[in-house]
Amino acid sequence: MLELLAACGVRYLFGNPGTTELPLMDALVRQERVQYVLALQEIPAMAIADGYAQATGSPGVVNVHICCGLGNAMGMLYNAFREGTPLVVTAGQQDRRMAFEEPILWGDMVAAVRPWTKWAAEVTQVADLPSAVRRAIQTAVTPPAGPVFLSLPLDVQMAEAKLDLPPPQFPDPHIRPAAEAVRRAAAVLAEAENPGILVGSRICEAGAVDELVVVAERLGAPVMHEASTSHGRCSFPPTHPLYASPIPFWSPEVRERLAEFDVVLVAGMKLFQQYIYHPPRPIPEHVRLVQVDDSPWELGKNYPLEAAVWGHPKPALAELAAMLDAAMTPPQVHAARNRGARRAQTLRQERENLRWDAENQSKLRPVSPLSLMDRLARVLPDNVAVIEESPTTTDCYFERVGALKNTSGYFAQRGWALGWGLNCAIGVKLAWPDRPVLAILGDGSALYGIQGLWTAAHYRIPVTFVITNNLQYKILKECAGVLNLPDAQAGRFLGLDVVDPAIDYVGLARSFGVAARRITEPAELAEAVAASLLADAPQVIEVPIHAG
Fold first, then answer.
1. Taking a C-beta distance cutoff of 8 angstroms, is the pair 436, 534 a contact?
2. From residue 474, how far is each of 241, 393, 416, 532 by CA, in Å?
3. Which of 47, 160, 257, 516 suits a disulfide with 506, CB 3.0-4.6 Å?
4. Which letter does DSSP use for residue 545 in this model?
């Protein structure tokens, strides 16, 4: 198994072992091509693999303990499923010669993971292991990508056989869409008087950002990411004049935002992923939809379409741009240029207003979320990778002010099993050792995966972790307000404050071997983060923030 993984280019095996994984751990001792990265619990192991896989685009391979360990990992498996991350998850299983007796730790793991995997199986004989590994890796990376699972019984792990171990030959995923579908999409978009574009993470993951830029410029259309509850990757350059702020959280505000458009192009996005039922529906009835995606399941899933383009986003958007060139009349081209110029002016004004708001809050203590993000935005290196798991603090600020200079280095939550961000950042840094990595984490989010700090310290993985501490689950208080709950309206909450005692994140980080400090002043924070991003060791910076 290890030989085959290495032949597929797998460099790391992330995990936390138990008795049913000991044969694999023993085999790891005798080889050097795959490095084992130990995490102290399954949440960090899975999320580190997730971050590594997202950053590299290649499969992250993770090994967890039998049922109890897999149970700990299920939240992170759910995240990977919602993200479409190519993970190969393995777990040891009890020796099948004891299975009829229902031994300790035994259970039907394949059935347990099936809802949140593309494929799941138990390897029942050693002769099938090479085919199982090849199938798992190919299934994980084939669009639409996603996690897979292999159960490895102890007796199979310890069996001996002569096996043929050629690595899989991956098919080229750049499947072109039907020409007539692209032609129909181009015709609808060319006729639009005020087009807009909604974009999701799969455009970044498909390497199709440049192609989307060309389409947006042809149309003079603003490009809006998903709301921060589901906006995982950055699929349009925040520095581009046609960048527009992400759509709001709640359906009525989304509906208001989209009301100005007559046609909306939806590219690589699940339409829509809402957080709380909040009628009316977010898409206004007059808006005509054109959708491009490599997942046929997403095309027209929730809303009827004027045109559906099924194919890999990179060739699909390139062909769409070419057909727009052929379809658009000179007056339509002129109108698109004028639209684009107006959007660029609007963007400049929005950014000036946002920075002005941040400046007006600069004297607040504890520091306000807006002021914190503004200070950090000033010290971001151009090649930074940012991992966000603190939505009520970050609010996509780096993108909204154009401080994020690259599209590849943005990672945010999509599944919302907490504990992901701290550990995702470790995996991203392993994937990109030459890029600075900044993780911005809510205090509640950090606690779910705090054991990952030990892995960062043990392997000396230099990530800067900023923990924004507002002593509460603020997003839940906001949601209670959206639901119009009576005591929430009166400001009374139960179980949503993390106080009495407050948690000492500096002491907690130091106990795992990570340098840590608490900073209360924005200017000092910016200076500390800038220095930490250049350092060769992990660091935690706790920042008390205004509860709001």
1. yes
2. 33, 10, 15, 28
3. 516
4. B
- Token pair for residue 191? 């006729």
Domain boundaries defined on the chain: 2-157, 179-348, 362-544
CATH superfamily for 179-348 is TPP-binding domain (3.40.50.1220)
Residue with tokens 């520095």: 239
Alpha helices for 57-167 (secondary structure H) = 67-83, 109-113, 129-141, 154-157
Averaged pLDDT in 10-residue chunks for the chain of 548 residues: 93 97 95 95 98 97 97 98 98 95 95 98 96 96 96 96 88 95 98 98 97 98 94 97 94 96 97 89 96 96 97 98 97 97 96 95 94 97 97 93 97 96 98 98 95 98 97 89 92 93 96 98 96 98 90
Total residue length of the chain: 548
Amino acid identity, position 271: L
> What's the one-letter identity of residue 503?
I
Residue type, 89: V
Distances (CA, A) of 22 to 35, 142, 156, 189: 16, 31, 12, 58
CA 213 to CA 519: how far, in whole Å?
A: 39
d(Cα 464, Cα 525) in Å, to the nearest integer?
A: 12
Specify which residues 516 forms β-bridges with: 540
Q: Which CATH superfamily is domain 2-157 in?
A: Thiamin diphosphate (ThDP)-binding fold, Pyr/PP domains (3.40.50.970)
H or E element that contains 353: helix 330-360
- Interhelix angle 369-377/330-360, rounded to 10 degrees, is 110
Q: How far lies 276's CA from each of 273, 298, 479, 480, 484, in Å?
A: 10, 20, 8, 10, 12
Considering the four listed CATH numbers 3.30.70.3040, 3.30.70.270, 3.40.50.970, 1.10.287.110, the one that applies to the domain covering 362-544 is 3.40.50.970
Question: Distance between CA 22 and CA 45 in Å, rounded?
Answer: 17
Q: Give the containing element (helix H, strand E) for 428.
A: helix 420-431
**Does the predicted model carry a pTM greater than 0.90?**
yes
